[in-house]
UniProtKB/TrEMBL annotation:
Reaction(s) this enzyme catalyzes, per UniProt: D-xylulose + ATP = D-xylulose 5-phosphate + ADP + H(+)
Protein name listed in UniProt: Xylulose kinase
EC number: 2.7.1.17
Entry-linked PROSITE patterns: FGGY_KINASES_2
């Protein structure tokens, strides 16, 4: 029986699943933590991958890595990191992003060129920041990779080996210098952002192409970005919208054609199957709940049950969840706000409920942004760490005003990477058919008044603070 491994190297941790390549059945799992920071030594990801995959990766026939998107890994001529990688949620590049947008002639020009308007998260904005603030390090940068590219290269032998660094369409589409519509790098945009420098870029592999072999002889597939990995792990079809509640909150869907949203809200990414993945990303999701649990001095598992004790609307408390700044809406310098405080509503259940409602109102807006780009949302699926709390699915159905599907909690990003590895191993035109996850269906209340009121209160609070 051939076996395959999938790696999810995400913001907070590295997860590994080993699956039966034919059926997708998960046979083994591993996990290791990542440093809690927005700039991280890529070596820490490699150590976490080896720890999570210890005793597992040596025995598989194929492996693939899905990684947090956009992170800037800068390497010198010897292939060694020039500095710690700047992650997708590091907002220091906000000014650089705004400057790039102005210099090219506005958001429409970027949407047309690469399908996505730069914000602080995009790799191209991080390159501009580096050129401006650390020119010596920029000068030493001979090569630029993304987190999954770098890990894929390490798996294949890394610097000093014959392996060539590669990436895939999905992750390349989050750089801001690769066009999903044309399937090509925009070297001009990269060099303009990097003040004339022209670092080497990884070759972009197609969905079935092979990156190399591990020292143990396992085939290494192309890998992809973590959201593209989740799409493959869930086996979504057009009409499905996935809301992922990890460190980031994302709302994304499959599309047969490239998208470009000049408002900048919807990123026009590519997926891992040769299609496209329009996506809205927020900076604040699962950590809104974990930070609120810490503030209330309760366990994370206790937050959902506490929130359920409050009425919809949290007694008038409104929580704007922009704890780490925000990406959509583009408010990189924002902080969270708790509004509507009154003597009568200052109870722990209201705070717990306001945190869940705030996180989900931000994602309800994301869903609307996707719909505004003609993305159909016949089914809404909720995954990611925060989806493990049953209260989240229930409150989501109320706030989104639509039934939601909550697939059984699983590492869908790692599973998608494993499915990609199985696909590359089989070499078939389509990915192997793996059975879909069991799921809980949550119906929306027949009366949507409460959900509408919650969203209206959230919108009003946001416009009071941010206009
Ligand atoms: N039962 C739970 N209720 C709410 N949040 C949870 C629960 N279990 C885990 N989480 C949160 O999920 C997050 C990790 O989710 P994950 O999707 O793995 O994130 P990432 O992919 O960004 O590393 C953590 O912030 C953790 O606090
Ligand atoms: O920046 C994005 C998507 O554009 C994020 O979704 C990152 O890819 C990180 O994902 P998680 O670690 O939260 O899963």
């Amino acid at each position: 029986m051939p076996t395959v491994a999938g790696v999810d190297s995400s913001t907070q941790s590295c997860k590994v699943v080993v699956c039966d390549a034919d059926t997708g059945k998960i046979l083994h799992r591993g996990r290791a933590a990542h440093p809690d920071a927005t700039e991280v030594d890529p070596g820490a990801w490699w150590r976490a991958l080896r720890e999570a995959g210890d005793g597992l990766l040596e025995h598989v026939d194929a492996v693939a890595v899905a990684g947090q998107q956009h992170g800037l890994v800068t390497l010198d001529a010897a292939g060694q990191p020039v500095r710690d990688a700047l992650l997708w949620n590091d907002t220091r590049s906000a000014r650089a992003a705004a400057d790039l947008v102005d210099e090219l002639g506005g958001p429409e020009k970027w949407a047309e060129a690469v399908g996505t308007v730069p914000v602080a998260a995009l790799t191209v904005a991080k390159l501009r920041w580096l050129a401006e603030h650390e020119p010596e390090r920029a000068d030493r940068t001979a090569r630029v990779l993304l987190p999954h590219d770098w890990l894929t290269w390490q798996l294949c032998g890394g610097p000093g080996s014959a392996a060539e660094p590669v990436t895939d369409r999905g992750d390349a589409s989050g750089t801001g210098y690769w066009s999903p519509a044309h399937g090509a790098y925009r070297h001009d945009l990269l060099s303009r952002a990097f003040d004339g420098r022209t670092p080497q870029l990884p070759r972009v592999l197609g969905p079935l192409e092979v990156a190399g072999r591990t020292p143990h002889g396992a085939l290494v597939a192309a890998g992809t970005g973590d959201n593209m990995g989740a799409a493959l792990g869930l086996g979504i079809e057009p009409g499905d919208v996935v809301i992922s509640l990890g460190t980031s909150g994302t709302a994304f869907a499959l599309s047969d054609h490239p998208t470009s949203d000049p408002t900048g809200a919807v990123a026009g990414f590519a997926d891992a199957t040769g299609r496209y993945l329009p996506l809205v990303c927020t900076l604040n999701a699962a950590r809104v709940l974990s930070s609120t649990a810490r503030m209330l001095d309760i366990t994370l598992d206790g937050l959902g049950p506490l929130a359920r004790k409050a009425e919809p609307g949290a007694g008038g408390l409104v929580f704007l969840p922009y704890l780490g700044g925000e990406r959509t809406p583009n408010l990189p310098d924002a902080a969270g706000s708790l509004m509507g405080l009154r003597k009568a509503n200052m109870h722990p259940p209201n705070l717990a409920r306001a945190a869940v409602e705030g996180m989900l109102c931000n994602l309800a807006d994301a869903l609307d942004r996707l719909r505004a780009q003609d993305v159909s949302a016949r089914r809404v699926l909720i995954i990611g760490g925060a989806a493990k709390a049953p209260a989240v699915g229930e409150i989501a159905a109320e706030i989104f005003g639509t039934p939601v599907t909550v697939p059984e909690p699983e590492e869908y990003v790692a599973l998608g990477a494993a499915r990609q590895a199985a696909w590359a191993l089989a070499g078939t035109p389509e990915p192997p058919h793996w059975p879909l996850a069991a799921a809980r269906q949550v119906t929306a209340p027949s009366d949507d008044t409460a959900g509408r009121r919650i969203r209206a209160a959230y919108a009003e609070a946001r416009s009071m603070v941010y206009g």
